Amino acid sequence: MLVVGAGPAGLAAAKAARERGASVTLLDAVDATGGQYWRHLPASRPSANERALHHGWSTYTALHEELDRDPGCEIVLGAQVWAIEQADAAGEAAPVAVHVLVGPPDGTARRGRTFRPDALVLATGAHDRTLPFPGWDLPGVFTAGAAQAFAKGERVALGERVVIAGAGPFLLPVAASVAATGAKVLGVYEASRVSALVKGWLPKPWQLVGAAKKGGELAGYVGTHLRHRIPYVTGRAVVAAHGTDRVEAVTVAEVDADWSPIAGTERRIEVDAVCVSHGFTPRLELPIAAGCDLTPERFVRVDESQATSVPGVYAAGEITGIGGVDAALAEGEIAGHVAAGGSPRDADLAAAVGARRTFTGFAARIEAAHGIRSGWTTWLEDDTVVCRCEEVPYGRLRETREATCASGLRSMKLTTRAGLGICQGRICGRTVEEIVGSPAASVTTDRRPIASPLRLGELAGRDPNTITHRPSEKGHP
Ligand SMILES: Cc1cc2nc3c(=O)[nH]c(=O)nc-3n(C[C@H](O)[C@H](O)[C@H](O)COP(=O)(O)OP(=O)(O)OC[C@H]3O[C@@H](n4cnc5c(N)ncnc54)[C@H](O)[C@@H]3O)c2cc1C
């Protein structure tokens, strides 16, 4: 069995599959397991402090250590899956062929491997989503995910005076991590108003009972906020950043329920760094390449077994819905167990099935409480850069849309080049879709047949070695 992604979902899937005797290869593009949630210092620079900086650290170390010493599980790090071919194209009985490059992405010696697994678990997580605003391309403006990577993976302070803004519960751990690096966090500005938070979080409170440990996590963040005197303000957004060579100040404004700024409420705050996050976008390129169906909300459609619409392909974690680490762990366990021949109704999965029920409910609450509202486009000026790779400003997108009456994403992309740069629309794709109007279901910015940049030499000299996992192999049921 092949598992792509060694975050919470992928680790849990690999462990559950090993418990059923399947031989497992676990791949991740980065050089450590743990994914986004358990991002930590590299093994060459260990810290005794990791436990204090991560919720559930012992869960991570138990998963990692068990898999690491298990001869039936091969963990391959620095392993970038760059393409998936569907069965027909691959001409094989296996559901898909998975093409991987292993080695440092900035080196020239990456080694190609191709897997034709009898079962594939996709657990590729999400990107953080940041809405543009005037000045968001200034140095010193970070995505909150990048801020987390600096704080948790490098212990680097982004600045001395930092503002955190956007929407969603993710702002809380980001503020805690940034404060832990010694930076002064001047405030956390949540765009959703109290009424939206109440609508998302208060209904059917009994459904939250099973998630009591989230309460503990929340209490930890509240404690950090109180200790560092970090104000948490709702119904406010950073609507502009100012500076010459780097950010020097931001404008924070009160926003209405639709996130449109309320005139006269603007306030300028001197800062040297800003961290912004407006939620997450699932990393869908591999499931789309594998032929998996998506839901109308654009997550991978799975059934109670975490099986996708493609036989032999399973999905778990943030690619099926933004439910947080506990949902990812539960889904991963179910996916690995079933992919290795088990049933979702097996008694030993009961706890995971219960946890999935509890924590996937979080996804709907997060969307209701913190989901992006359409008024954000009123923050934009004509010269606000939307596609940073190709430097396409909002005005050009708007004019092109009006001049051509085209709501076609593809023609917009070819006319303006928005989304054609190095990130291939990962940062601006959904933003451009919203500016252009609803995309046709089949034409979205999530489709990237080549999932990551690769050198032509790597393509031309591709090692045809094929590692095939078959049910008859070691230990597989
Ligand atoms: C930038 C960022 C930071 C976050 N930080 C926090 C936090 O501090 N606290 C919190 O509560 N939640 C955080 N989250 C939310 C968090 O991602 C989830 O709760 C949890 O980590 C989801 O687990 P997962 O296994 O689904 O995905 P992830 O943890 O994202 O793991 C997915 C893994 O798949 C790998 N991968 C993806 N594509 C490929 C490919 N093509 N080839 C090979 N490997 C691939 C990635 O490298 C990654 O390690 C963060 C999310 C993001 C996007």
Account of the 3D structure:
This protein is of the alpha/beta class. The chain folds into 3 domains: 2-126 and 281-366, FAD/NAD(P)-binding domain, CATH 3.50.50.60; 130-278, 3-Layer(bba) Sandwich (FAD/NAD(P)-binding domain), CATH 3.50.50.60; 376-436, no CATH class. 31% of the residues lie in helices and 19% in strands. The chain is built from 15 helices and 21 strands. Strands 3-2-1-7-18 form a 5-stranded parallel sheet. The chain has a 5-stranded parallel sheet with strand order 9-16-10-11-12. The longest helix has 21 residues, at 350-370. It is globular, with a radius of gyration of 22 Å. The termini are close together. Mean pLDDT is 88; it is low at 465-477. Residues 4-10, 27-30, 35-37, 79-81, 123-128, 145, 148, 170, 173, 280, 283, 286, 317-318, 324-325, 328, 451 line the site of flavin-adenine dinucleotide.
Secondary-structure map with pairings?
Layout: E1 2-4, H1 8-19, E2 24-28, H2 50-53, H3 57-68, E3 73-77, E4 79-86, H4 87-90, E5 96-102, E6 111-115, E7 120-122, E8 126-128, E9 141-143, H5 144-153, E10 161-166, H6 171-180, E11 184-190, H7 194-201, H8 212-227, E12 232-234, E13 236-242, E14 249-254, E15 267-270, E16 273-277, E17 280-282, H9 285-290, E18 313-315, H10 325-339, H11 350-370, E19 385-387, E20 392-393, H12 394-404, H13 409-416, H14 429-436, H15 456-460, E21 466-467
Parallel strand pairs: 1-2, 1-7, 2-3, 6-21, 7-18, 9-16, 10-11, 10-16, 11-12
Antiparallel strand pairs: 4-5, 5-6, 8-17, 13-14, 14-15, 19-20
Flavin-adenine dinucleotide (FAD) binds at residues 4-10, 27-30, 35-37, 79-81, 123-128, 145, 148, 170, 173, 280, 283, 286, 317-318, 324-325, 328, 451.
InterPro entries: BFD-like_2Fe2S-bd_dom_sf (IPR041854), FAD/NAD-bd_sf (IPR036188), FAD/NAD-binding_dom (IPR023753), Metab_Enz_Cyan_OpOx_G3PDH (IPR051691), Opine_Oxase_asu/HCN_bsu (IPR017224)
Domain FAD/NAD(P)-binding: 2-194, 229-332
Protein name: Pyridine nucleotide-disulfide oxidoreductase
